[in-house]
Amino acid sequence: AETATPVGDSPVGAGGEGQPMIPETAKPAEISAAMKNPEVQRYLLKDQEAALEKEKEEVRTVLAERHKDVRRQKEEKKRSVRWIPGRATEEQGSLFWEITITLLADVACFYLVFAAKGVFISAVGVVLVAFFTLLLIDSFRTLRDRKRHSAQKRD
Question: For 126-142, what is each residue's pLDDT tens digit?
Answer without folding.
Answer: 999 999 999 999 988 88
